[in-house]
Amino acid sequence: MYYGEIHALKGVSLTVGAGEIVAVLGPNGAGKTTTVKTISGLLAPRRGTVTLEDAPITGQPAHEIVYKGMAHVPEGRKIFNRLTVVENLGMGAYSRADGAIAEDMEGVFALFPRLKERRTQVAGTLSGGEQQMLAIGRALMARPRLLLLDEPSMGLAPIVVEQIFETILDINRRGTTILLVEQNAAMALGIAQRGYVLETGAVALTGTAAELADNADVRRAYLGE
Prior knowledge:
The protein has 10 helices and 10 strands. The protein has 225 residues and is α/β, with parallel strands linked by helices.
């Protein structure tokens, strides 16, 4: 993967099995966000293949990939600031024409009761934690089988981070596969089954969450030990 002539990703290869939570760790500039943008179709790789449930999706537009069962919660949330909570959630269901959208919106409100309390509030006036809840809820409205989460804890208070990660675990228990990009390695490895560590655009380490949590280099670089 290139940005102009800058070689951002160098042979990154990763897999996410059905029903898993897989964490992607690494320092700033390691290529984590570039990786998920490439998977979701926001960036097109010069070489390599992206597959979803064994079907190639390389180079397909991001909105078409949503129809195939993938949703992406981007770094920085990227909600529609001038729309209300309900309108943002409705935008998440743009790919659907079935009659269960209202039911699914109530399901999002069950996951995030704070959003139900603020359903008519303009999204740009929400707190950072509420905006992150909304970004996740908006993605869930597409009924994804694979959910990509890019730095969901960024800029949030510790108690809110705990709430967000509990909800991510709940979403996974309900059957959604999750690829989680996260700088909070301790939280990510606490809920993931497996993980990858990226450094300078390449996979430096891979293993089970327990193996990575016990790795001396990971503990020193990402767990503050």
